[in-house]
Structures are given as C-alpha cells and as structure tokens.
Amino acid sequence: MGRHQVKETLAKILFTISACVAVVAVGLICIFLFMQGLPAMIDIGVWEFLTGTDWRPTWNPPQFGILPMIMGSLYVTAGAILFGVPIGIFAAVFMAEFCPRPLYKVLKPSINLMAGIPSVVFGYFGMVVLVPFVRTHLGGSGNSILTGSILLGMMILPTVITISENSLRAVPRDIYEGAIALGASRERAIFHTILPAAKSGVMAAIILGIGRAIGETMAVRMVTGNQAVLRTPDEFLSGVRTMTSNIVLELGYAYSGDHRPALIATGVVLFVFIMLINTLFSILRRKDGAR
Questions:
Q1: 38 and 265 in contact (C-beta within 8 Å)?
Q2: d(C-alpha 291, C-alpha 287), whole Å
Q3: Average pLDDT estimate for 73-89
Q4: pTM here?
C-alpha cells in the first residue's frame, strides 16, 4: 500500500470515528432525556403536564403544568422571527448584491463578531437598554414578551444574514444575467430570480434562527420577567417564562418528589419541538428538490 493510500485510509477512519462520536453523543443525550423525563410525564399525566396552567412544585399536592412555558417560548420565538427574519434577509440581499466593497469589509467582520457575543452580554444589553426603553415608551414593567422578542431577533440576525448571503452568492450568475437580458430591473431580477433560487438556503437560515431562538436561555431569562402565567398574544407587554428559563431557574434546588424529573421532562418537550422543526424543514427541502 502506497503512502498516499495509507493517508487516505487513516483520514477515512478518523472521519468515520468523528461521525460516530457525534451520533453516539446525540443518542446518549436522547436516552438520558427520555429515560429521566418520560416516567415523570407518565406519573404526572401527559395531558395534564402539557396542558396544565399551574406550575407550583412546592404545593401539596404539587402542580406541574407547562402550558404557560410552552406558550411563552412560542410567543417569544414568533416575535423574534417577525423582527429578525425580514431584517436578516434584506441585509443578506444588500450585502450580496448592493453593498459597496469598502462598506462590505466593515459589515462582514461586524456580523461575524456579533455572532460570537455571549448570550449573557446580549441579556445585559437587554436589561440596561431595551427594558427601560420599552417601559418608558410602551408601558408595563419592560420585562415582557416584546422585549424578549426584540432581543432574540437581534441574536438570530448573524445566523440568518450569513447563511442567506452564502446561499444568494451560490446562485449561478447566469440566472441573474438572463433576467436582466429579458428586461427586468436589477431589483426585480434579484427578488424574483435570485432570491427564489436561493430559497432552500434561506429556509435553512430561518430554521437555524428558530432553533437558536427557542433554545436560548440566559438572555431570555434576563428580560422576560420569568412569570409562569398563561398569556394571550395581546399581552405582549406582560412577562412570561419560557421552557429553557424554567429549567435553569429551578434545576439548582429541585430535589424533592417529581420536581427535578418534571424539569427534565420539560427538556424532553423542548427537544421534541426542535426535532419537529428540523423534520418540517427536511420535508420542505425534499418537496423543493422534487420540483
């Protein structure tokens, strides 16, 4: 066996081991979550756990209903999508098609830097800037669904912008030039040919942004008020508690009864949410590819 073949074989073995380690790690996390969380859900009652509106682990008997946390996560994530996705996509279009080169050299590193900012720093920014701003100009305590949505919308921007821009740049230039040759304006060619052609990558950016938003913990904990109360969409200036915040707030002292298993079961529900989002994205990609 030649030297080149030995290197190639070793590289294949290394890559295979790395892939197996990643799969095993995810599998172990799944096994732990479901082994610890499912018995608690069955003991409490799956329907009661998912649709209960009271979370009072210290009561006798204790109440473990996570519907307020589920809805809180959905409200904040939906708000983040409304704020972050349109801005992110338009910013990606600007950077890929309209941005002058000198400005691009400033914007691109800034966005990359923004992606590396720790979530607790975003949370601190939300506490000292966004919370007082919302409280002063819109009312309420400032710790609210709206504040969390704005902050999460800012946090998902680097993901949406970077992946969307890469997808737009990957579209063959012939598509754009063909549209221009047929008489389309520059803006029409971009938004009616290049952007639809990059739809798969843009959808990937949105899904990853949703995953980042629904799984965020520290920043949301610092600005949403952490009130385990069921809210309606029109109460966007009221505080909520998300599933991730619920886990991190109470796991440190949850030692009695079903309290700790119920928190792990909350993690199971969050895991299932993310799996459903990824599955939906895979289905959409397959349909898009079939066309």
A1: yes
A2: 6
A3: 94
A4: 0.88
